[in-house]
Amino acid sequence: MFHFSYKMNYLQAEQLSKSYGDIVLFDNISLNIRDGAHIALIARNGAGKTSLLNILAGKDTPNAGAIVCQPDIRIGYLEQEPEFDLSLTVFQVVFASSSEMVQAISDYEQALISDDKKRLAHCMERMDYLAAWDYEARIKQILGRLKITGIDQPVKELSGGQKKRLALANLLINEPELFLLDEPTNHLDLDMVEWLEEYLRKTASAFLMVTHDRYFLDRVCTELIELDQTSVFQYKGNYSYFLEKRAERMATQQAETEKAGNLFRTELEWIRRMPKARGTKAKYRMDAFEELKEKAHRKQPDRQLELNVRSARLGSKILVMEKVGKRLGEQLILSDFSYTFSRNEKIGIIGNNGTGKTTFLNLITGMMQPDSGKIDTGETVVYGYYRQAGMEFKPGQRVIEIVKEIAETVTMGDGRQISASQFLAEFLFPPEMQYVMVEKLSGGEKRRLYLATILIRNPNFLILDEPTNDIDIVTLNILEEYLQTFGGCLLIVSHDRYFMDKLVDHLFVFEGAGKIRDFAGNYTEYRAVQQATADTSRQPAVAKPQPKATPVKIKPTYREKKEIEELEAAIAVLESEKATIEQLLSTGSATHEEVVTASTRMGEILTEIDAKTDRWLTIS
What is the pLDDT of residue 475? Predict the structure, then answer.
């Protein structure tokens, strides 16, 4: 007997086109979303990702084409910046649903809050009837994982990040058959991202998502759709597969364009040689000429962002924090924290929301003052602080005006002096975009402009607070390449594990109650150690011998690397002195006093070599 599963089309987009004035986002594209499909949508900023999601969700209309949905399919849309009725409370938003079961759980929770025993008994009977207790536990798990508390709080009092988590919670509670997710990991801490990753990996619902988180994308998506140069390209596989196949496609496209260009030039010469015979030429040759002309002039891949900005000279003294303490109200943020920053250090900062990461950055930059201790900044330090809140601008302000307020000319990494307009062109703002009002830019374009305003100051101490939000994957790769060779200090707060792993040497782990742990390694190594520790603590007191685990490789901090170099130099000097003494003792020509002195010194040398070697092994 043969068994097969039929995959139903939940949503079908046919020959969609969308443009704004002369800007064409996509033209005549089609795509299908079947039940159980786990799809990612990838494109550069400004290419139309959010516009496409808005059309698929019914919040916008295409210029041409049609959307066909399976009848009765429930679609849930997580927008990049969710909007709510500001008169509602968190509770009302969380339980906003047409589902009978969600409504029953909402009534039960309200009865618990009101302590109305008669109403509570009725609600419990209804919960029993609907078998809703497991579902209620699941809702509480979702709220707990997304750290949604204060359910009586008005929505208007929430921050942008809290609103995003609230919208995500409502979506997961209602569990539609099809999720449309625009940057679902934005404003989540690392624990939340890992939990959501596991949730979506296991869900039976279909989803189409836009995300810049490459680990997340690689682990939960089995199909990718690339929106490139107004067309779509589909890849059946995860992010790693996409990278391989996209590189092949780009190479083939480049070769075809070059070949068509050569043929076009040959054909153009033939056309020009025989102008009088044009009317009698073979029609097929004329048609072929037009086709070659189109191929030869096919749009080349879009120009990429260029980060080649000089950083100011950094002196030997950078930043010293001595026994720094800080409280915000009753909350202890820092307790006697001391650290001396070194050149070329790349430090990641992780910890749960509310443990004081942003306060720490504000202390470093002087935007806040410590309650105790001392923060001493070197005279040559130029901070570049990229804040999570983004860039501030005046209504009606144009792109070029933002940059010219900071500098009319900029020094590039190769020593060139360029104008503010040329600098913006390096950041993919051509002249026609430089006079656009900032409020009309997409979220990603605003972030790119904000990055330009940070780097134009030639900083040598970069502080990046969630720099990956709303930035496309291509731009992220270019930013990572720049930061890997950045000659100053780098501090990064990010929930993007891929970004952190690629850049940082060690981590400041904010553990709460004022404690910061310095961990020598990147985020993945930190999680591996955490997991190994958790596994050990769960083992029974008497257990069968386990095979020896492969030790986790942990990279030393910059300070420890310097110590390793010093230890190696010191050991080399001691070994040289030891060889000299051995030679003296082996000659037999030394006096009794010389032999006693040399033997005593030999014992001291061996002790020192052992101690320094042990320290070297510990760090390495």
Answer: 80
Please check whether residue 198 is in contact with residue 142, taking contact to mean a CB–CB distance below 8 angstroms: no
In single-letter form, the type of residue at position 317 comes to: K
Any domain includes 356: yes
Q: How many CB atoms lie within 10 A of CB 384?
A: 23
Nearest-Å Rg of the Cα atoms of the chain is 31
Residues 501 and 480 in one domain: yes
Taking every pair of Cα atoms in the chain, the longest distance, rounded to a whole number of angstroms, is 115
Cα–Cα distance measured from residue 270 to residue 272, given in angstroms and rounded to the nearest whole number = 5
Cα separation of 74 and 558, whole Å?
A: 52
pTM: 0.70
Which is nearest to 358 in space by CA: 202, 552, 161? 161
The verdict on residue 362 lying in a domain is yes
Q: Are residues 124 and 229 in the same domain?
A: no
Per-position b or e across 561-576, b if 16+ CB within 10 A of its CB: beeeeebeeebeebee
Q: What is the CATH number of the domain that holds 391?
A: 3.40.50.300
Neighbours of 65 (CB within 10 A): 18
Distance between CA atoms of residues 296 and 461, nearest Å: 46
Which residues are 181's β-sheet partners?
A: 78, 209
Question: Tokens at residue 438, please?
Answer: 């900032």
Range of the domain at 593: 558-619
Number of structural domains in the chain: 4
Do residues 397 and 513 both lie within one domain?
yes
Are residues 59 and 70 both part of a single domain?
Answer: yes
Rounded distance between C-alpha atoms, residue 550 and residue 540, angstroms: 21
DSSP 8-state code for residue 556: P
The residue type at 102? V
Which parts of 7-163 are beta strand (E)?
9-20, 23-34, 38-42, 64-69, 75-78
Phi/psi of residue 154, nearest 5 degrees: -65, 140
Pairing label, strands 417-419, 515-519: unpaired
What are the per-10-residue average pLDDT scores of the chain (620 residues)? Answer: 60 92 88 93 86 94 92 92 88 86 88 84 90 87 89 88 92 94 90 93 94 90 89 88 83 73 62 52 55 53 62 84 92 92 92 87 93 93 88 87 86 78 84 88 84 87 89 82 87 91 92 91 88 68 46 54 79 82 68 68 77 72
> Can you tell me the distance from the alpha carbon of 27 to that of 584, in angstroms, rounded to the nearest whole number?
86
Let me know: does 178 contact 11? Beta carbons within 8 Å: yes
The pLDDT of residue 462? 93
pLDDT at 39: 95
Evaluate whether residue 313 is within a structural domain: no
Q: Are strands 372-377 and 319-328 parallel, antiparallel or unpaired?
A: antiparallel
* Residue 156 falls inside a structural domain: yes
> Does 396 share its domain with 326?
yes
How far is the C-alpha of 53 from the C-alpha of 80, rounded, in Å? 10
